[in-house]
Amino acid sequence: MDHLKEIGAIFFDMDGVLYDSMRNHEYTWIHSLKEYGIDFLPEEAYLNEGRTGYSTIRIAFEKYLHRPPTAEEEKEVYALKTRLMGKQPKAPVLPKMQELIKFLKKQNIKVFVVTGSRQPLLVDKLKEHFGIEASHIISGADVTNGKPHPEPYLKAWERSTLKKEACVVIENAPLGVEAAKAVGLYTIAVNTGKLNDSVLRDAGADELFSDTTSLFHSLTNRYHE
Ligand code: CA
After folding, report:
1. Which end of the chain is more exposed for a tag (fewer CB within 10 A), N or C?
2. Which of 65, 3, 72 is nearest to 34 (CA)?
3. What is the 13 CA–ligand 1 centroid distance (Å)?
4. Ligand 1 centre from 190 Cα, in Å?
């Protein structure tokens, strides 16, 4: 994808792409699962990033306690994690992402956000920080299956009303890359987390950047070429 002019829509993941929020997720996963005797590792927060909360809880219980969580435990862990998230410092917007979205909109490129998150203030936040309307957000509340299932990106693509070749995904998580590639979309990875680049490449990323500033420069330069 050498010329941005061919692109009609970009689907942005949220945590770790638009917001520097993954350290909060890492902290709250580790501390909520610890209450149940599970020593979740920091990198596991990143390897499971994109899954629904309940799915991550089930994976952690199976791996560390060798049994599935009860329905009650699922709810308790998720409620505890949500409570801890509420106490974390506000996640800042990642560098140059507001500028990138402004730039893309100016070129009449449609911008969507595709996230597994279902936090209640998400719509207000995306509107305030990025000018993104509710109709351009696919959240955890809009899908039955979270990433790595293709459903979230399939929904975004349907909403774009464009050909697949005109759509690009920007992701920071291996499961998010897998979900996007399963739909057949061109996927750019930005490695803002703690995993090796190879994990994102192995997931199928078509391009890889080490931070959001280099992503911004690369995309905007391509457009001016
Ligand atoms: Ca993410």
Report:
1. C
2. 65
3. 5
4. 10
